[in-house]
Amino acid sequence: MAALLLGLWAAPPVFAQSSTRSAAELMDAVMWNREPIGGPFRLQDQTGKTRTDADFHGQLMLVYFGFTYCPDICPTDLQAIGLAMDQLGNDAAKVQPLFVTLDPERDTVEHLAQYVPLFHPRLIGLTGNIKDVSQAADAYRVYYKRVATGDKPNDYTVDHSAFIYLVDRDGKYLGFFPPGTDAPRLVEMIRPHLIGKAEH
Ligand code: NI
Q: How many domains does the chain have?
């Protein structure tokens, strides 16, 4: 029995280009706060530097998962995040926005380096191998699924949930903003978390 279990545990996990759980299940976990959200990650930023969640402790994190070829939702939300950073003024220094790709094969370090500055100079893009990206996405209960749009290998899009997660200075999950939240609302919701707590 023990040998059998060990055998199962030793089996290499399959990291498909999609979340292992259904959209409804993951949506439910986030919407009703049924499961812990967030946690450790280890990825590369748009300069190729390895970044972990611990690098951002002491700042609030705005964490967003998407992909650069996203035609609509991602750019809109990233634009709102960029505008919110501008509207936060000096307080923006206490907030770190992160864009984690769900399409690491196309969203290389070099590609992210061209993409993230379009939205804000402080936006950090994160990519990595499929395993590390899957782990980060799973930790944030992100739904994503690669969907073919043609016959060529690169003809695909990625369906994905698009919450903006807010994480506190200690790395503790605070809550999420729904897709389409505009910049003034982001700022209004972020501000209370910038005060009333001892600085690290
Ligand atoms: Ni998107």
A: 1
